[in-house]
Design goal:
Largest sheet: 5 strands, antiparallel
Helix content: 40-55%
Organism: Streptomyces hesseae
Number of domains: 2
Region (Disordered): 1-21
Distance between the termini: 37 Å
Strand order of the largest sheet: 1-4-5-6-7
Order of helices and strands: HHHHHHHEEEEEEEEEEHHEEEHEEHHH
InterPro entries: AKG_HExxH
Shape: globular
Structural class: alpha+beta
Number of strands: 15
Protein name: HEXXH motif-containing putative peptide modification protein
Strand content: 5-15%
Amino acid sequence: MTGPRPADGIPGGRPEGPGRVTPATLARLARTRSAPGDVALLLDGLHSGRLLLLKSLLTRLERPPAVPGPARARFEEHWRLLEHAEAHHPDRVAETLDYPSVGTWLAHTLAAPDGETLALRLGHFGAVAATAALRAGADFALDLPAPGGRLALPGTGLLRTTDSPVRLTAHGPAARLAPPGGHGGALLLRAAGRVTGHGPGWQGLLRLAGGPVRLDDLDPYRAPPGGAGRYALPAAPRTAGGPWARHWRAALALLRAADPARATEVTALLRCLVPLAPAGRPGTKVSATYRVAPGAVLTTPPSSPWELAEVLVHETQHGKLAVLHDLVPLHAPPPHGRPALHRVAWRPDPRPVGGVLQGAYAHLALADLRVRAALLPGLTPTARHEARTRRDSCLRQVARALNILLESAELTPAGGEFVIAMERHLAGLTRPGGPDVTIGTASPVGDVR
């Protein structure tokens, strides 16, 4: 069989792989804070996980008849384009593959049964390869499917069309999306790895202030197919991006005032903010991060800038811990019997050890943030009292969860050391005088699903 094989080099790969997680790295990350070298380690770990999913897809396609011949031939054409793009700019190929919705698509595709269903989902790989090639500055021409009248370019935008396939032709700084053999269509412009566009049917993603984060309210894979959180909320349809842009700016400003290092971490690790449809129950708030798509925060509309600031911090920790656990397993099922379930303060349902660790880690970061927020100058007496009340509640919740974890036999040795370091940080937060603001020298509100 021709075409890519699992033994071949995967475009976007980095031969050296992720760096080693040392005990010092674990101890730093247990404090819910990332130094610059730790951020690089986590991003490399995320990329390694994405390549593993991509290699799993290649392996799946090696087993005939996973998909009909024409679907396999299209996949090979798209793969060659990805290799062509990598020859131009490998880093931009890697950035495209690492975009959160690509992880969701890969997981969704790997779960599809062989045959036409897998072939249909496999068609989106062409849009992934085309996006990488656009960002890498490669010249190419490709026909891309637009199922349901939508062609999504991950992290870039979406074309609504009555034509399928759509012809994408890229040459120099410009590209055009048009019916095959047709004229006109939407125009895309590319410069320094960024792609913008305008014209019939084209909608681009809004880039939020202060970093590389986008408001992703277009990509069909921006949320899991079954919805987010225990209420299975769907992604919200596109509306005016202004309110979300204002929410983001206000939340980021609060984080920078209360904890500049925390704000830096959020903008370094997040790639997109995904609005969820409001829950049916008034006042119900949902946020989520998914293990296959770290770097995306899914959330219902916030009622205040502080609420969104806390969601950003909370969900960033879930993504960090998911990647870290893939690099160094922190817990494992017991060799005999079923995994234990435990009650925690922030969920109504009993949680396995992995869920307890995820929740404790995210809430430890919130406790750290709330300690600092309670010390901000200029707070009214009422606001300071509320901040202290929320701080104390969070500290108590984390302390109880850490006791559960320290008594668990399901932690690995690395997980045990990680939880002990979390406990030390919690003790530092409760000392008179407040938290230790030094994060050390670095090497060069829902649980994660």
